[in-house]
Amino acid sequence: MLESAKHHPSYYELVAISGEENVRDNAIDLLAYSRDASPFQLDSPGIVVRPGCTEEVSKILKLANDKKIPVVPAGARSSINGAPLPRVPNTIMLDLTRMDYLKKLDEDTMTVTVGAGLRWAELIHLLKEKGFKLGFRGPYGGNAGTVGGSLSGNSIGCGASKWGGACDSVVGLEVVLPTGEIVNTGSGWNPKAKTFARYTTFNDLTGLFLGDHGTLGVKTEATLKVYYTPNGVAFADYGFDSIEDCAKVMHELQRRNLAEELVLLGDRNSIDLLANSYLDFYEHLECILAVIIEEENEEIANKKKDLVDQIAKKDGRSLGTFLSKAHWTDMFNMVQPLFDSGFWYNTCHLRPISTLPQTVKGALKIFKKYDVKSKGMNWIISALGVDRSYCTGWITLFMGDPKNKPLMEKVWGELKQMEFSTGGAVPYWCGPLWEGECLSQVSPNFYGLLKKIKGTLDPNNILHPLVFGL
Ligand SMILES: Cc1cc2nc3c(=O)[nH]c(=O)nc-3n(C[C@H](O)[C@H](O)[C@H](O)COP(=O)(O)OP(=O)(O)OC[C@H]3O[C@@H](n4cnc5c(N)ncnc54)[C@H](O)[C@@H]3O)c2cc1C
Q1: Cα of 139 to ligand 1 centre, how many Å?
Q2: Are 141 and 78 in contact (CB under 8 A)?
Q3: Out of 37-46, 279-288, 322-331, 396-405, which region has the weakest mean confidence (pLDDT)?
Q4: Most CB within 10 Å of its CB: which of 84, 379, 423, 435?
Q5: 131 class by beta-carbon count within 10 Å (0-12 exposed, 13-18 middle, 19+ buried)
Q6: Separation of CA 150 and ligand 1 centre (Å)
Q7: Fold match flag (99-228 vs 232-429)
Q8: What is the arithmetic mean of pLDDT over 121-132?
Q9: Would you list the domain boundaries of the chain?
Q10: What is the per-residue pLDDT for 80?
Q11: Which residues does a 6 A CB cutoff place in the pocket of ligand 1?
């Protein structure tokens, strides 16, 4: 273990709160904490603290507020958008990953309360052992990503087609405000009540902190909805000659809420990278839709699959189950290796499913214009059904040779512009990846309200300053 430098002006006060072993300000640790999983490089934290409980977080925020020292909360720093990186010097970075406990699984109210630093993969495992599942299971970076990080960054991922994104799974939060007060939201406003309902007597204060990127409070605990583990699972892959046909079927399945997960591969190149054996058998295969169904028992799951079959085969053909099974059974591990190949050049965003063909064609046009394949670059175009009626656009570029970085960044920028201006799309998280585009388009009234809320909750602007331009 490396010795702390003990240079930070609050070093000794922070040690008094969280213990010497949980406070670090040596150059090597600070360098490690100055990166997430994106290509962005902003500032380094001035010191890192790993609080072990809510009271410690509260004391640290009171200290920081009194001394006007900036604080950045962080989970696993697995973001692919630069969100957890400090924007100003000398910050205290709060690494929440020590708060990784399952506090209570409540079968009475079908909820689980966890520490904000618990990783999704661990939570899924703990619940499975007891016969429960989550609706939204975590982002595909869920081996690392924490519950608190995903709720702060509005993650979309596994299970989102049926259950919505991370924030849709929340019943209540425990949050520490920038001034140190501890607040419980949902039915938790009443200390004598269980946290079982999100929308109760007062305003929905839970929503105030969801997707806030750590600018309004530090989440210390979250209560999420749980369900019994299903006994019936069915898989199906369908192939299509065009993105229009594939998107049409995806839209209908999504609107009818038939699948737990719907994943689309949007062009031959993406199929070649992820499911190339299908290309040997089907000559005109342009897109694939992978469908996963989960139900109480096999009989219901298979009946649903019959319905899906009827809809999908109107415009497509049945391929088998390879992609849907691989996607579902190895959910987090499948995406992880892509990260090593340059997955961080992503353009993840949300859009109406009806606009998918437009954006897929726009992306292919850009790739052709720059002839990116001949420069050693590659891409995956995919989409995931979300919350009944819309989807993600997941278009990711892979750099190959690092000397192509300047061209890569040019293509990446053009891709983002095209996606933002095609068919009413919005990003689901922000960070430096999307901040410029978002701030240039946000309505003045919306932004004015955000500023008022921030000014009221965080009068000294200590919590993640400059994020969202605040
Ligand atoms: C291989 C791979 C696959 C991925 N797949 C997906 C995907 O499918 N969908 C997706 O959405 N993302 C994906 N990601 C990105 C990332 O894993 C998720 O966004 C994840 O939710 C981030 O969680 P984290 O704990 O790492 O948060 P961090 O990156 O540490 O932080 C995210 C934001 O939340 C704030 N924050 C963190 N903890 C707290 C807290 N307790 N209180 C207040 N604010 C806090 C931070 O300041 C920051 O603004 C992927 C990443 C990788 C590497």
Answers
A1: 8
A2: yes
A3: 396-405
A4: 84
A5: exposed
A6: 5
A7: no
A8: 97
A9: 99-228, 232-429
A10: 94
A11: 36-37, 72-80, 83-84, 96, 116, 139-141, 144-146, 148-150, 152-153, 155-157, 213-214, 218-219, 335-336, 339, 343, 464
Structural domain 232-429, CATH architecture: 3-Layer(aba) Sandwich (3.40)
Separation of alpha carbons 106 and 52, rounded Å: 23
- Cα–ligand 1 centroid distance for 151 (angstroms): 8
Distance CA 238, CA 316 (A): 6
Distance 94 CA to ligand 1 centre (A): 14
Dist. CA 387 → ligand 1 center (Å): 20
Atom 4 in ligand 1: residue holding the nearest Cα: 141
Task: Answer whether residue 133 shows pLDDT above 70.
Answer: yes
Q: Does the pTM exceed 0.90?
A: yes
Cα(469)–Cα(87) distance, integer angstroms: 10
One-letter amino acid at 197 equals A
Could you tell me if 133 and 296 are in contact, meaning their C-beta atoms sit under 8 angstroms apart? no
Q: What is the tens place of the pLDDT at every residue in 53-98? A: 999 999 999 999 999 999 999 999 999 999 999 999 999 999 999 9
Report pLDDT for 437: 92
For position 1, what pLDDT does the model report? Answer: 65
Q: Which amino acid is at 363?
A: A
Report the C-alpha gap between 233 and 302 in whole angstroms: 8
Q: Tokens for 224?
A: 């999420």
Return the best residue to mutate from 77, 155, 394 for the ligand 1 pocket (most ligand atoms within 8 A of CB): 155
pLDDT above 90 covers a percentage of the chain that reads 90
Give 259-299 as a DSSP string.
Answer: -SEEEEE-SHHHHHHH-THHHHH-TT--EEEEEEEEESSHH
Six-digit token pair at 144? Answer: 């690392």
The CATH code for residues 99-228 is 3.30.465.10
- Strand 390-398 and strand 345-346: the pairing is antiparallel
Confidence check: pLDDT of 439 > 70: yes
Whose C-alpha lies nearest to ligand 1, atom 50?
A: 141
Q: How far is the CA of 77 from the centre of ligand 1 (A)?
A: 6
pLDDT confidence band for 281 (50 / 70 / 90)? confident
Arithmetic mean of pLDDT, 168-192? 97
In the numeric block, the tokens 């500032």 are attached to 43
Query: Percentage of the chain with pLDDT > 70?
Result: 100
What is the tens place of the pLDDT at every residue in 213-224?
999 999 999 999
- State the closest ligand 1 atom to the C-alpha of 80, by its place in the atom list counted from 1: 15
